[in-house]
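Q: What would this complex look like in 3D?
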Amino acid sequence: MSLASLSAPVLSRIVSLSVAIANHAGKIIRDVLKKGELGIVQKENARDLQTEADRAAQRCIISSLSQCFPKITIIGEEGDEESKQISGKVYDPTPESTIQVTCPPHLASLGEEEIVVWVDPLDGTAEYTQAYECRKSGHQGVCKTLGVTCESLLDHVTVLIGIASGGKAVGGVIHQPYYNYQNPGSELGRTIWGVVGGTVGGMPIVAPPEGKLIVTTTRSHSSSTVTDAVDAVCPDEVLRVGGAGHKVMLLLEGKAHLYVFASPGCKKWDTCAPEAILQAAGGILTDIKGSPIPYQASVPFRNSTGVLASAPGQNHAFYSAKIPQHVKDNLKA
Ligand code: AMP
Ligand code: MG
Ligand code: MG
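A: Here is my prediction, written as structure tokens for the whole assembly.
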């Protein structure tokens, strides 16, 4: 494996390889959509779907990571079957395509055995499939059914590789396969990475506007508790968009102050990478009560007590205190 500097800390090397693999997974996701053979399968319910893009991206990510780091524990959204199917197409980045990632001293001595990687090969599957249906029906410009363009929904899709140790998110990678979709001719896709206590790479961090509160929440998995929690923080504006990765990107880009999701639908693979990058940038991601989300391999996958995330510089505890008690009581661990 042609990984840059084998003498670098394990965490730095995993993040560096994950950046290259996530770029490759993004290409797989674009290729499946272009081919139009989505192979949609319903998982828990009609709003919880899996496509060939989810499966193929997971096979690529897990086979590539586990070949290079055989002792790490990897948990992927699409389950053991997809994880065990080593596709034969292990992605081996060239030295030029890997980046140098710095790691703070307290994480520099982590061993492979101490690391759990949470993989969401395609976050925002609902929006990915809706964009596909929209394109298939030949809609041009703003889709009559969705009220937005198909391409703008693809912007909600991300690849998430979250790295945890000691039950805490310590590093993460978010890849946006359709970043730059508004600029034909420019290279599609962008990858952001971060190490807690270290730095964020791949994008500039922008502060959200002062004097107003912009909240982002789900567009496809809402409920009365989700709405009650959003209303309780008294937002000036609400951005209902898909994907946990995309919503945390809005916090990092200065487009929203707060991500509020008072529902048990999000899983550890949705929050681990976004939490690590947000924390590296100075923001916070917890459950809706303000308590840390645990990331040991043995914990339940579901974030049953919801998600609350705030952009760098926001008063996280203040907003957590505003969430109504009946909403908190409804979300039991
Ligand atoms: P959303 O904000 O609705 O895009 O959700 C963020 C992540 O949580 C996505 O990966 C969703 O698939 C997942 N999620 C949220 N709510 C649910 C739910 N009710 N059922 C299944 N997955 C969910
Ligand atoms: Mg997801
Ligand atoms: Mg997913």
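A: To summarize the key features: The first strand starts at residue 41 and ends at 42. The radius of gyration is 19 Å.
Q: Very helpful, thank you.
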